[in-house]
Amino acid sequence: MVMEEEKHKLTDDLCQKQLVDPHHILVDGRNSKQGDGQKQKNMNEHLQLAAIIKGVHRQLRREYRANAKEHEKVWQQHTENEACLERYAKAMYRLATEHWSVNPATRIHWCRQVMLEYFLQGGRRIALEKDAKRVYHEKLRRNHQMNDADASNTTPTVFANDKSCDRLEANVESDIKPEIKQSVTGKIRLLDVGSCYNPFLEFEEFDAVGIDLSPAKQTVLKCDFLQLSTYEHPDPLNFDLHDLASPVTRLPGQSFHAVIFSLLLEYLPSPAQRWQCCTTAHSLLSSSGLLLVITPDSHSQHRNAPMMRSWRQAIESIGFRRWKYQKQDHIHCIAFRKVCDPHPRPTGEDRFVDMLYIPQDLTDACYDDTPSGPVGEDNEEKLNEFLSMASELPALEDDV
Fold first, then answer.
1. H or E stretch at 385
2. Rounded-to-integer distance, Cα 58 and Cα 81, Å
3. Which end of the chain has the least Cβ crowding within 10 Å, N or C?
């Protein structure tokens, strides 16, 4: 583990350098040796930057445990440490823009494609139709049970008569009509939480607002999402997002079509804070809006499948329904849509809160299997593996 002072000095030194895109290095022929050396340099610098990010995450978890899991106290102290926040923002910005962006199939592009498919290419309508059919068939099932209870044992029961089946499509269209009227007609209103540098500004389909505890660019507004409040607005989807200014402390409810948590939830040291973020996102989303969650995981899809199932159950209990899921090499990509009829709040709500766990919550072991020192020139296999991982999310999660 690098000492705190050394990490700070390392970050300041690194911020004065210009990293080289590892995919543009010549490694064949007479340039092979020089290329290998440059790859080593990129790998070492990348791991050093990632160590800064992981160091902050680990420190937050340690303080959370040391303070009897008083997450509000720990978070307040963290937000007051401006130097730490600035170093974190610089390291994350360089990782995102100089290492992860070399792969076109990044988390950013996945989010973009999902939003376009859902809002502009018919995905939302299909989802609403499925909801309406599900409700309709549930009504038929209840009627069927009531008929069974009233009828004699010799009377045959019918689940649905021909007339009710013929009316299904008409009922579905009638049920979803109010929702369809709220379809996106202009740009998709997007809130990127923990944005760092607001990468969605480059896409013309979005009216993107980026917020972060410590913005790396002026295009991002300063905001502590855990302290954000919402209020009622007479026309929230016409609220002018360009009127927002730092620091953002309140936003109109139901004023965004999409909310993005990209590498956000694992930053927070407690399940309660992750839960709070999801409930705030629900209040900020318009009807049938999308919550997009990206979380790192370089293991196989099945390694942390129980955690993903737990997250799904917890988030759906708030009033979401999962719409799309993809496991990429180093990340889980999940899209939840806000449903019109949120599930009733369970009596034992704490059970769902605790289900938003990460592996590091379950152990005090804060270590990983990624090298922290220089990589030897003879380790070609490790270098090539690193370059593959560097295209998206290398070494950000702690292996437990």
1. helix 380-389
2. 15
3. N
